[in-house]
Amino acid sequence: MIRNHYEPEHEQFRDAFRRFLEQEVVPHSARFREQGMIDREVYRKAGEAGFLLYWADETYGGSGLQDFRYDQLMYEEVTHALETSMWMGALNRNSPPYIAKFGTEEQKRHYLPKLTSGEMICGIAMTEPDAGSDIAGFKTRADRRADGTWVLNGQKTYISFGLTAELFVVAAKTDPDNPRALGLFLVERSMPGFRNGRKLEKLGYHSQDTAELFFDNIELSPLHVIGDPLRGFDYMRLGLAEERLGSAAQSLPFAVEAIRLAVEFTTGRKAFGKRIADFQNTKFKLAELQTEVYATQAFLDHCVRLFNAGQLDPETAAACKLKATEVQARAVDECLQLHGSAGYMQEYPICQLYADSRIARIFAGTSEVMKIVLAKKLVG
Ligand SMILES: Cc1cc2nc3c(=O)[nH]c(=O)nc-3n(C[C@H](O)[C@H](O)[C@H](O)COP(=O)(O)OP(=O)(O)OC[C@H]3O[C@@H](n4cnc5c(N)ncnc54)[C@H](O)[C@@H]3O)c2cc1C
User: In a 10 Å sphere around its CB, with 0-12 CB exposed, 13-18 middle and 19+ buried, how is residue 323 labelled?
Assistant: First the structure.
């Protein structure tokens, strides 16, 4: 299927990003997996090369390119290179937009240039041990003092970049009498009262650091409060739509790569005197998956263009995430099956795609939550 989604400038950016991966990431891949994280220095270099917050205004060090396709193509490239733990899109889209969209001029001037250059990277801290999907169940609290400053107490878990990020956007309850009062706060690793808990061992994404965070009486000035501290739910509704589009853009390339790997494997291996690819089952599976990928790619590319035009609503973003992650799951599973036991071995790339993909139907909102979001629009 001809995909007329990218322009020549995107392809130039793609070439530059591919070279960056080849030079800075691929040669160190095994070590990154072993140590459970990509070297922090890699993100500094990514910032220098213009891959971080390229969308930020030039005043804040970015290129002002309001075009999600650059994140989309970076996800395609990391998956193609099997450097799936390199979550450029998450760094660009999951937390900095809260500062850019809802922050004050002072906050933007203070943080965005550091995030653009890679001097700082920013994680998003929402999930808690007792509340993930149920945002209203968060226990982390920010209490306002008489002088207008805040004190933050609580705990977050499963936080991406939990060990490497210097900054986190943290969601916390702001009024004990109002369960829907939620604020978003900027918490720096260097602040007294911040500490990491365990580094969490995962099924996949072995070079991605995921960790627990603890906040003990962290004192926050107005510089650390994003927007209205009672309106975090509204901000997150918009922010999560962007994160979900990112999750869809991260997931579909897995299906593309899984099919490519399965074609390569099944045309090279024989059983019962035939290539595996010659069995009708193989052909039908591959054709079905390819059809799913074509249809989902068209939907995803359309959602990206809607986002660029400021027209992507949270429900359509949820549908896109749901569809892309479910196609991803089916493709990696069925393409692993076509590999036989080889697919279960670490030395075959489909094995890593299978392990890394499992979380996609859970994080950034589970498939069930995506259905709830969409169904609410349909039937209330
Ligand atoms: C690798 C990784 C990275 C992550 N990165 C981050 C991060 O950077 N920041 C962050 O804040 N979080 C992060 N998370 C956490 C992730 O977003 C949450 O775990 C996820 O939203 C689900 O929450 P939960 O685990 O509490 O599941 P729960 O909410 O407890 O859900 C358990 C099950 O119940 C289902 N369920 C829940 N409510 C309903 C309902 N109303 N109807 C039907 N079914 C329901 C869910 O769909 C799920 O199947 C990460 C997780 C992982 C594994």
Answer: buried
